[in-house]
Amino acid sequence: MSDDFLHPVRTYYEDTDAGGIVYHATYLRWAERARTEALRSIGLPHAEMASQAGAMLVVKRIEVEYAKPARLDDLVTVRTRVRHVGAALDLDQDVLLNDEILAALKVRLVCVGAAGLRPRPVPEPWRSALRARIASPENAA
Questions:
Q1: Nearest-10 Cα torsion for 91, 96, 102, 103
Q2: Which pLDDT belongs to residue 2?
Q3: Global confidence as pTM
Q4: Residue 17 known to be catalytic
């Protein structure tokens, strides 16, 4: 994930409305895929967190600001940046087309126990791996 994780996504017909414009909820699916692939890229996939640590990350809050639409057949990139790792995990995710931001997402994830869904700290080694990738060191906690 270095500081930024880049995940390419092709826009298909199923992602769009009748006018060929990407439907707003599609950006949330793309962001979810990029977060999953970001963890996988550092060797710490979601499935291992559940099986080894009995925990999972869930979205607590997400804000999306749409700037421009993606369209049918666009090849966009979802950029994921770790902003803060503490009791919650804060990420910035941008959907880009040729380095132009189409949508900016601010995401807050929390860790919960897989069985009871009660809040718990992000387990090691995920916590350390994510902290090592914080985009702005002043945001580390």
A1: -10
A2: 47
A3: 0.89
A4: yes
